[in-house]
Known about the structure:
It contains 4 helices and 4 strands; from the N terminus they run ααβαββαβ.
Amino acid sequence: MSNIARFTVSIEDDLLERFDQYCQEERFATRSEAVRQLIHDRLTTRAWETGNDEVAGTLTLVYDHHRPQLGKGLTKLQHDNTDLIVSTTHVHLTHDVCLEVIILRGSANRLQQVAAQLKGMKGIIKGELVVARAEV
Length: 136
Ligand code: NI
């Protein structure tokens, strides 16, 4: 078994109050138990999100369609990764703004990489990737 280390955390009092409420509602015996579990959950999630596991995901993009380079760039990047991209749905939200939902499937690290490239394009107003394991 690992040795137990202690560390000090500085935190705003209102955030601590909310955390204590969370600990109470989730019936954690101590704050340490709750922090341990949250760290463990987050690190586990991060490991598979960025690893080689087969995952599926949706990437939601909101962008200004008046930028011609952006539209071309989004299309090109999707055509360069047809093995990852399952489907794309485009909605013309307003006169100026488009919503695109891209469904992806493949290794987690490639999926993250392509999503980051798409999200990072100039003119993207919002970009959010949601990833799930393809197998349970
Ligand atoms: Ni549109």
